[in-house]
Write a structure and sequence with these properties.
The structure holds two protein chains of two kinds.
Chain A (H helix, E strand, L loop, with lengths): L8 E16 L4 E17 L3 E5 L6 H8 L7 E8 L2 E5 L4 H4 L3 E4 L13 H11 L5 H14 L16 H13 L5 E5 L7 H18 L2 E5 L3 H7 L2 E6 L2 E7 H6 L4 H8 L40 H5 L13 E2 L19
Parallel strand pairs in A: 3-8, 3-9, 6-7, 7-8
Antiparallel strand pairs in A: 1-2, 1-4, 4-5, 9-10, 10-11
Chain B lengths: L1 H26 L4 H4 L15 H7 L6 H13 L5 E2 L4 E2 H36 L4 H15 L2 H15 L10 H8 L10 H7 L3 H38 L2 H8 L4 H38 L5 H10 L3 H29 L1 H4 L2
Antiparallel strand pairs in B: 1-2
Helix pairs in contact in B: 1-14, 5-6, 5-10, 5-12, 6-10, 7-10, 7-12, 9-10, 10-12, 11-12, 12-13, 12-14, 13-14
């Protein structure tokens, strides 16, 4: 895959790993590791939305938090392009880079401090990053709240007075308060009602063009990802197994796992009877992943080679479609036809 | 906020009526003859009078509701009857002894609240590291040691062996000064009064008498508050909004002080309320162990001598006090947690 850090790239992640130790007994002896994120490398282009999908527990959120250094990654390098200069993101530098990269959390109900007024929640990052004048901060909060579709008259309220969708808007306003270039969206709509999801997604879309934002959009809902992403990465057991432009990935998947995921998208048209691929068995434990290709025990195309060799994530046709499957070229997999999304 | 307090105040009379009713029910277990003492104002009244006359005079032969109303009328006048064991009216005895208990409680509560929260914070910040183990051990000992045992140990070491902290409220000489001459009792708190009168020697003497009972009284609550603060802080530290605070780029100090501790204070405030109530119960034992002449010792003496008037009077007094303390705690609760006052 391409590793050149060109100017149109905003975020560069190389070999990111996050292992959680499993401890046992009185003295907390480490008996193994949960490999939540295993050797993940990718780049995010300026102004694009990179969607990350996968089942629960595949490491999507851990990856997002590791990139943000809200949890310390075990290994790997994260670089951020700040005005043409590549700065390494690590435990030491993250304090100064928080205004460049922000995160919108999954649960809008628990991620706002219940004892703070909205204006203080949104203004606090400004204060921490040197905006000294209170008046100035509150002016900015006002315009941010307007930007996310909340009236500035709500500034003095507390989080519990808002609905889930409104709270997520507050979370978004908070993330945008420092004018970041990258926003990691960690399943920002999965806790919301479907009707509210659409509103928040459209808001994110509007804000992206208004402020020139780049999103790393983590989700497990494929239709959400299809709607908002330019490119999509599919994760399985801590690894990226396929990454491509959204039309490519949905229309012409090359990894059997992606095919299975896509077949599970419900289609609103009752006349279309698609083949649903039911994966056999459960997701293997990330503490003891199967040898070879991690997906082989559930893959209906698995051959001997899959049980022994771990496939690399490669772009065989040099068209920006990366797949980690030995037989990507030989398989003829079914995708979904792109449909109009609301 | 003001409406919240006003609303709480509206409930106050209802609760107070409840308290008087409870005490009144307790009283009705006594015979009218035993009850007479709760009505007379001085022993003089007993001279040349038969008990039956007094029973009739105070309407103790009347039906329940009449007796209740006349009793409450007496209460409103501040009339709680005459205590044989204290040899004065109950109101007088309570008024005389209460400042001593207030002094003891104040010297206990303030360090407990500040110190307990401080140690709890340290313990939580050093979770599972040596400092955490030390404070936790300190807490477990305090939590498990009964106050009468702990008090006797202190008395044995610091009075019996070292002679540093004598029992009582003041030494004999200081007591004489305080009770006679031109020593003005502004507040009834010896430590404060002695300073206002310009007597540092008496101040030092009263502090010497306070140290051991204060430690005995407060150790349990240091331990309790420490444990509550610690567990509450640890819980809040894993909350999503603390992660949000970190994502904002705040320093660790700001995260702990502004986001973690403030939210962790909610259960601590609740517990502090019960702590004040517990302290007031604790004074009965601690004052008895240290012969400290406060309201706790008064109650204990009254109970030992079956002085019904005194027992009923102090019960009522405690009841009123607890209602007021609960009110203060509820208001504090609303200050700490904005969600409460908006409900």
């Amino acid at each position: 895959m391409t590793t050149a850090k060109t100017d149109d790239i905003l975020l560069d992640v190389q070999g990111l790993r996050k292992y959680f130790p499993i401890t046992k007994g009185l003295f907390r002896r480490t008996v193994g590791h949960v490999k939540a994120v295993e050797n993940v490398s990718f780049q995010v282009r300026k102004g694009e939305t990179l969607g990350v999908v996968g089942e629960s527990g595949c490491g999507k959120t851990t990856m997002g938090l590791s990139i943000m250094h809200l949890i310390q990654p075990t290994d790997g390098q994260v670089h951020l392009n700040v005005n043409g200069e590549w700065l390494q993101v690590n435990a030491r530098t993250i304090g100064n880079l928080r205004d460049k990269m922000q995160i919108v959390f999954q649960d809008p109900f628990s991620s706002l401090d219940p004892r703070m007024r909205i204006r203080d929640i949104v203004a606090e990052p400004l204060q921490a990053h040197g905006m000294k004048k209170r008046r100035e901060r509150y002016d900015r909060v006002e315009s941010l709240l307007e930007a996310v579709g909340l009236g500035s008259h709500l500034m003095n309220r507390f989080p519990h007075e808002f609905s889930g969708g409104q709270r997520q808007r507050i979370g978004i306003a908070r993330a945008l308060s420092l004018n970041p270039s990258l926003v990691v969206c960690d399943e920002p709509v999965s806790a919301l009602d479907v009707s509210v999801q659409a509103q928040v997604l459209n808001l994110l879309d509007d804000l992206q063009s208004e402020f020139g934002l780049t999103y790393l959009f983590v989700a497990h809902d494929l239709s959400v990802v299809q709607h908002i992403s330019d490119r999509v990465a599919v994760m399985y057991l801590g690894r990226i197994v396929e990454m491509a432009e959204v039309e490519q990935l949905f229309g012409n998947p090359k990894h059997p796992y992606t095919e299975a995921l896509l077949s599970a998208i419900p289609d609103p048209d009752p006349d279309i009877v698609g083949e649903e691929i039911i994966l056999q068995g459960d997701v293997p434990s990330p503490a003891a992943p199967p040898p070879g290709c991690h997906f082989h025990p559930r893959c209906r195309y698995a051959k001997d080679r899959c049980r022994q060799e771990i496939p690399e994530l490669v772009d065989e046709e040099k068209r920006g479609h990366l797949v980690a499957c030995h037989y990507a070229r030989d398989l003829d997999l079914t995708g979904v036809t792109p449909r109009e999304t609301a | 906020m003001i409406t919240y307090i006003a609303r709480r105040l509206l409930f106050l009379p209802i609760v107070l009526i409840g308290v008087t009713l409870l005490v009144f029910v307790a009283m009705s277990f006594l015979s009218p003859y035993q009850l007479v003492s709760a009505y007379i104002k001085s022993p003089e009244e007993l001279k040349n009078q038969s008990l039956d006359d007094l029973v009739r005079k105070y309407g103790l032969d009347q039906p329940v509701h009449v007796r209740y109303v006349s009793w409450v009328k007496n209460l409103l006048k501040g009339d709680l009857g005459y205590s044989v064991s204290a040899n004065m009216s109950v109101t007088e005895a309570v008024a005389k002894r209460f400042p001593a208990t207030i002094e003891l409680a104040l010297f206990a509560i303030i360090p407990v609240v500040l110190g307990g929260i401080w140690l709890g914070t340290i313990s939580a910040k050093h979770y599972n590291r040596p400092l955490d183990h030390v404070t936790r051990t300190f807490a477990i000992i305090g939590w498990s040691l009964p106050d009468f045992v702990f008090g006797l140990i202190l008395l044995m070491i610091f009075y019996g062996v070292l002679g540093w902290f004598p029992p009582g409220r003041l030494s004999m000489w200081a007591d004489t000064v305080v009770l006679t001459g031109d020593f003005v009792r502004y507040t009834g708190l010896n430590t404060v009064d002695s300073l206002l009168n310009g007597r540092p020697d008496i101040f030092w003497d009263s502090v010497r008498h306070l140290i051991a009972p204060v430690i005995t009284l407060s150790y349990l609550w240091w331990a309790y508050l420490l444990r509550i603060t610690r567990s509450s802080m640890l819980e809040v530290m894993n909350k999503d909004y603390v992660r949000t605070a970190r994502a904002k780029g705040l320093t660790e100090k700001v995260v702990v002080n502004r986001h973690v501790r403030r939210n962790a204070m909610i259960p601590v405030a609740t517990v502090s309320g019960s702590m004040v109530l517990g302290l007031l119960g604790g004074v009965v034992i601690v004052e008895t162990v240290f012969d400290y002449k406060g309201i706790g010792l008064l109650t204990a003496t009254g109970a030992q001598q079956l002085d019904y008037t005194l027992i009923l009077g102090t019960t009522l007094f405690y009841g009123m006090l607890l209602v007021l303390i609960n009110l203060v705690v509820d208001v504090l609760y609303a200050v700490i947690d904005p969600r409460v006052r908006l409900e």
